[in-house]
Specification:
Distance between the termini: 27 Å
Radius of gyration: 16 Å
Strand content: under 5%
Length: about 140
């Protein structure tokens, strides 16, 4: 397995562990939309994003020279789900401040991994930046 393939496999594993941690969070005392979202859509987005990372989907130029922003292999809907976390976490009042902070850290690390791959995949993989974000992800979801 090459360096890039190994780094992407590690990222996918870290994403699965983080998604499992999110699914393990306490449920609200009374069912609510935020609780359902945290138990289903968010962990799915975390796992999907980290498994879909693609260094080929990076920033570049179109044939006519226009800058085209890469997506790191992750679709807009998944990124939108991750971006919603800072707005949703304050509504998850049944979670401790530590759990809320860790949720923010997890989604920040996932979003950061996507942007790293989209902006500079060579540096992200060859210089261990993706691996460091995966370590942050693992720590936050521990």
């Amino acid at each position: 397995m090459g360096g890039a393939a190994a780094a992407l496999a590690v990222a996918a594993q870290a994403g699965r562990r983080a998604a499992a941690w999110v699914r393990s969070l306490p449920v609200p005392p009374v069912p609510c939309p935020v609780g359902a979202w945290l138990a289903g859509e968010l962990p799915e987005a975390i796992g999907t994003a980290m498994s879909a990372l693609d260094p080929q989907d990076c920033d570049g130029r179109s044939p006519d020279g226009v800058l085209v922003e890469g997506a790191g292999g992750v679709d807009e809907e998944t990124m939108s789900t991750l971006a919603a976390v800072p707005c949703v976490v304050p509504e998850a009042v049944w979670l401790t401040p530590d759990q809320q902070a860790r949720l923010l850290a997890v989604t920040s690390a996932v979003s950061g991994a996507v942007r790293l791959l989209a902006e500079d995949p060579g540096t992200a993989i060859l210089h261990g930046l993706l691996a460091r974000l995966c370590a942050v992800l693992d720590h936050a979801a521990a």
